[in-house]
């Protein structure tokens, strides 16, 4: 059980493949117990935390590092869930979180295509998608654009002709190989778009992850 007296991984909680067997998605349905506190915490830390990092345009808005150090039971709960998802997807009991962070996207923020060089697997959790635009269904969407994914190459191997856009909503958590190219389309809403992310391995990697060319989805 987590500090919120919720199951870290609810019974019968599925991880379903999304376009590729190495990409898995799950949707949590108990979010009313922790989303309000988590949203308040990340927005407060965006204003006050020494762990925040204002990134250049195209690098995923404002980043707040070290989810595990946030003084927030809701953050600790999601951190435990991310670790458990890694264990289940990779079928391992060995875990090492190389980096964790929250992202606050505001108007005109986006994330260029990138991969994570220090992650066996990366995890993204959608806390709040922000505002939606019925005329622009891809606004602020997280997606994969990688010619190594057969889903993206429907006409010819290695020739990317379509995007893999997971069906993510508040409470969605997705896991994927760190080397897979992913990005976030420009966001133009008024309400902040909020996500949490983790880079996880089965063993520690030497060096400081903040001094490498890491992606920031």
Question: Could you outline the blueprint of secondary structure elements for this entry?
Answer:
Elements: E1 16-17, E2 24-27, H1 35-48, E3 52-54, E4 62-65, H2 73-90, E5 96-105, E6 111-114, E7 121-128, E8 142-144, E9 172-177, E10 182-184, E11 193-201
Antiparallel strand pairs: 1-2, 2-9, 3-4, 4-5, 5-11, 6-10, 7-9, 7-11, 8-10
Q: If helices are DSSP runs of H or I spanning 4 or more residues, what is the number of helices?
A: 2
CATH topology: Jelly Rolls
Radius of gyration, in angstroms, nearest whole number: 16 Å
Helix content: 10-25%
Strand order of the largest sheet: 1-2-9-7-11-5-4-3
What does this structure look like?
This protein is an alpha+beta fold and 217 residues long. The strands form 2 sheets. The protein has an 8-stranded antiparallel sheet with strand order 1-2-9-7-11-5-4-3, covered by helices on one side. β1 and β2 form a beta hairpin. The protein is globular, with a radius of gyration of 16 Å.
Question: How would you summarize this macromolecular structure in one to three sentences?
Answer:
Helix content is 15%, strand content 26%. It is α+β, with helices and mostly antiparallel strands.
Give the tags.
alpha+beta, Jelly Rolls, about 220 residues, disordered C terminus, eight-stranded antiparallel beta sheet
């Amino acid at each position: 059980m987590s500090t919120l007296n919720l199951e870290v991984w609810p019974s019968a909680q599925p991880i379903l493949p999304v376009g590729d067997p190495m990409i898995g998605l799950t949707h949590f349905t108990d979010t009313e117990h922790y989303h309000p506190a988590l949203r308040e915490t990340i927005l407060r830390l965006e204003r006050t935390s020494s762990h925040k990092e204002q990134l250049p345009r195209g690098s995923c808005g404002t980043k707040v590092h070290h989810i595990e150090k946030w003084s927030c039971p809701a953050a600790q709960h999601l951190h435990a869930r991310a670790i458990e998802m890694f264990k289940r997807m990779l079928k391992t009991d060995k875990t090492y979180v190389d980096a964790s962070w929250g992202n606050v996207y505001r108007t005109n923020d986006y994330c260029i295509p990138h991969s994570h060089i220090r992650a066996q697997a990366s995890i993204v959790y959608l806390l709040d998608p922000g505002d939606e635009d019925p005329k622009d269904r891809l606004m602020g969407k997280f997606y994969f654009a990688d010619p190594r994914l057969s889903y993206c190459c429907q006409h010819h191997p290695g020739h990317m002709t379509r995007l893999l856009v997971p069906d993510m909503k508040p409470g969605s958590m997705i896991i994927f190989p760190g080397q897979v190219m992913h990005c976030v389309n420009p966001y133009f809403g008024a309400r902040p778009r909020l996500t949490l992310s983790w880079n996880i391995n089965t063993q520690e990697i030497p060096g400081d992850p903040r001094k490498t060319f890491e992606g920031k989805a």
